[in-house]
Amino acid sequence: MARSESTIDRPRTRPAAADRGRSRVGDTTRPISHDRKLAGGRRTSLLLGVVALAIAGALASALFVLPVRNYFAQTETLDERRSQLDRLEAVNSDLEAEVARLRTAAGVAEGAREELGYVEVGEERTSVVDAGVVPTQLPPGWPYSVVTAITDLRRTQAP
Known about the structure:
mainly alpha
């Protein structure tokens, strides 16, 4: 049987009895030669550590922080939508009651009176219009200052 050649550097001495069965790949206590190191100097190692820490922080943020924040935002939105639904259902039930009332004979007559101005035989229709509310706050300036003074005077002299 011929021995196969390999590009892996093998020690010239056979491993000690305590090293048998252990992998040389996982041996972290053995010093690594300078040309095989991933980072050459202390500054490069520190930079690689900072970059690795930043990547780990970004991953932790993406996996834990953002979903939790979205969960709470969705919970708040869901509560808001539920309250909107409750209000809409209340309005809907009021409208259904109004429709049921207007489907009766008395409801039809009332709707015709209010919406169309229907008057039965022998009745007389009289419309009364509100005067409305007159604003008492006028802008400052010449013509309005005189009117404001007159209204203030009348208001204080009213019995």
